[in-house]
Amino acid sequence: MSLSHALLGLINYQPTTGYELKATFDKSIHFFWNATLPQIYRTLTQMEKGGWLTLTVKHQNGKPSRNVYTITKAGQEEFKRWLAEPTEVPETRNAMLIKIFFGSQMNPSQFAAHLRAWREYHANLLQRYEKEVPSVIKQYAHATGAFKDALYWRLTLDYGRKVDRMVLEWCDKALKQIEGKGKKESSRKEPVSPPKKLTKKLVRGD
Q: Which residue range(s) make up the domain with 97?
């Protein structure tokens, strides 16, 4: 997938500015495909040159002009072509899982700290999914009139919720195992050396 297809999909709902597009992106597609504002503007410029978008400058009294992007017929055709083609196999790259794989070479307390940080990230993300995103879906559906599309937006939301709940459950289980291992190791008693007098007697054969 390229960023241009994600942007085509959003602009297909309604004409928009680059700034407004970034705001919409951060509340929706951002959860599974990230992009910065400069990346979005560069891609919009390329898409306009490729004939997928048109740019209209709308002047406003007392306010900066608005550069509004509208999808063209060629852009709609490209978006539909991309939707119809087979989906690429997702590339799995997760630095956290690499650290977990080599976790035995790490201090248990440091390893546990990584797990807690990862757990906190997904807990915060799940909280956004539960409290923030449902209302965003409802508002955007009313703003664009894309009420049928809201069903599919909720499917991606449901996927995100399930993934984060799974990660939280996994982190809790992993933390118990690691912290339990640490307690066992710290509770092991050092071997007690026999008293010096007893050692001398054993050496003499008394």
A: 92-186
- Which tokens is 169 given? 């459950």
CA 51 to chain centre: 31
From CA 168, how far away is CA 33, in angstroms rounded? 21
Q: Is there a domain that residue 84 lies in?
A: yes
Domain boundary pick from 90, 111, 143: 90
Distance CA 157, CA 31 (A): 9
199 within domain boundaries:
no
* Within a domain: 37: yes
Reading the block at residue 156, the tokens are 């991606």
Q: Which of 72, 90, 108 is the last residue of a domain?
A: 90
Per-residue pLDDT tens digits of the chain, which is 206 residues long: 689 999 999 999 999 999 999 999 999 998 888 899 999 999 999 999 999 999 999 888 878 888 999 999 999 999 999 999 988 777 778 899 999 999 999 888 999 999 999 999 999 999 999 999 999 999 999 999 999 999 999 999 999 999 999 999 999 999 999 887 655 555 555 555 555 554 455 445 55
Number of domains the chain is built from: 2
pTM: predicted TM-score of the whole model, two decimal places: 0.77
